[in-house]
């Protein structure tokens, strides 16, 4: 695998450290992003610049995309020709949090008939996991192709956190539903902490008591604490979180599964993105609750 050529498209918060880890592992990588500046550290580390998505794909054995969502995946793969440029036998690995339908459309339009393979392989673990090579990777696709790409996944996550979830689409679904649960936890947590704090109870004492109760969650135990410093985690944009929540709602619609709570949470995320801007942090719904109640969640004082 080390002799394989990798094309990499999408050098944002997640893609930049992932591509850098591939370079550090000695891989032959060509990179493309709509912002050439994003590639400067990679070019300095030995990557080749591709002038377009199609040229990143043309000589690649493996094309990795780490794009915002379905719209950009369709743009890059179909409109800008990356899929058509891939050679028979090559593999497209989409690490974006995207939709099974978009990948299916790409495959039916430009991959399947020419013997180009694909995997969906979205991730969790945030920028820190991407930087440290400790991502969880949820893979959907044929077992034989998963095994072919596994050595590359093992550079980006630990072997025990690379999960083959099932056929095409299973990786996207795993990521979408897992994310949705975290978003629902976040909104529920913001609501009750704001309520308690507005009533005059110290938020940190409140958090500790909930952490010791059956209502505990990772959010209560640790994630929420960063808002005490006014940090709403800008390493993951609230607009991307709203997109992800929308993917859960769309999945429910397609499958005829009722997802009432997810639909409400999606709207709250969208409102936060409209209020604070698309690049505000993924925990901005907490700020929305704070601002609507006229308080800040800060230890030592209630309101
Ligand atoms: P980002 O917005 O920081 O980066 C996206 C990159 O894609 C940018 O560099 C942008 O210039 C580039 N891009 C956009 N459109 C393009 C196009 N048409 N052609 C080429 N490049 C294009 O997003 P991110 O935080 O890196 O997230 C990437 C994906 O990973 C998303 O699907 C996100 O939901 C998912 N994700 C993010 C995190 C996180 O903590 N940030 C964690 C897990 C999964």
Q: Please give the share of residues in helix.
A: 40-55%
Terminus-to-terminus distance: 57 Å
Topology pattern, helix = H, strand = E: EHEHEHEHHEHEEHEHEHHHHHH
Helix-strand category? alpha/beta
Q: Please outline the major beta sheet.
A: 6 strands, parallel
Give the count of helical stretches. 14
Instruction: Provide the spatial order of strands within the biggest beta sheet.
Output: 3-2-1-4-5-6
- Name every ligand kind in the structure: nicotinamide-adenine-dinucleotide
* Beta-strand proportion: 5-15%
Q: Radius of gyration in whole Å, from Cα?
A: 20 Å
**DSSP, total strands:** 9
* Shape, per Cα inertia axes: elongated
Low-confidence stretches: none
The overall pLDDT, averaged over residues, is 97
Protein architecture, described:
- The chain has helices spanning 15-24, 40-44, 53-58, 70-79, 82-85, 100-111, 126-132, 143-156, 170-198, 203-211, 218-221, 238-255, 260-276, 284-293, and strands spanning 5-9, 28-32, 48-49, 62-65, 91-94, 117-120, 123-124, 136-140, 162-166.
- The chain starts with a strand and ends in a 10-residue tail after the last helix.
- The strands form two sheets. A six-stranded parallel sheet has the order 3-2-1-4-5-6, with helices on both faces.
- With 303 residues, it is α/β, with parallel strands linked by helices.
- The protein is elongated.
- Helix content is 51%, strand content 12%.
- Residues 9-15, 33-35, 38, 66-69, 72, 75-76, 96-97, 123-124, 126-127, 235-237, 240, 244 line the site of nicotinamide-adenine-dinucleotide.
């Amino acid at each position: 695998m080390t002799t394989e050529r990798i094309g990499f498209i999408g050098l944002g918060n997640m893609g930049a450290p992932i591509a850098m880890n591939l370079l550090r592992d000695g891989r032959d990588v060509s990179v493309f992003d709509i912002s050439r500046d994003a590639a400067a550290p990679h070019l300095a580390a030995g990557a080749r610049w591709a002038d377009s998505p199609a040229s990143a794909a043309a000589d690649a054995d493996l094309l990795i995309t780490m794009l915002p969502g379905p719209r950009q995946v369709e743009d890059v793969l179909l409109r800008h020709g990356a899929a058509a440029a891939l050679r028979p036998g090559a593999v497209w690995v989409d690490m974006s949090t995207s939709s099974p339908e978009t990948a299916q459309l790409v495959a039916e339009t430009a991959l399947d008939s020419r013997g180009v393979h694909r995997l969906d392989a979205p991730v969790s673990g945030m920028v820190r996991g991407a930087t440290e090579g400790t991502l969880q990777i949820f893979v959907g696709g044929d077992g034989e192709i998963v095994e072919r790409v596994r050595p590359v996944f093992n550079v980006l996550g630990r072997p025990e956190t690379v999960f083959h979830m099932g056929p095409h689409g299973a990786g996207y679904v795993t990521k979408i539903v897992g994310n949705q649960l975290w978003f629902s936890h976040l909104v529920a947590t913001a609501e009750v902490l704001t309520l308690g704090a507005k009533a005059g109870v110290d938020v940190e004492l409140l958090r500790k008591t909930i952490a010791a109760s059956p209502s505990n969650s990772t959010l209560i135990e640790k994630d929420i604490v960063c808002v005490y410093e006014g940090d709403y985690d800008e390493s993951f944009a609230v607009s991307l979180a709203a997109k992800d929540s929308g993917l859960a709602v769309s999945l429910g619609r397609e499958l005829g599964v009722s997802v009432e709570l997810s639909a409400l949470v999606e709207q709250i995320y969208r409102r936060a993105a409209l209020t604070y801007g698309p690049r505000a942090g993924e925990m901005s719904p907490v700020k929305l609750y704070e601002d609507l109640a006229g308080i800040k969640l800060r230890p030592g004082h209630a309101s």
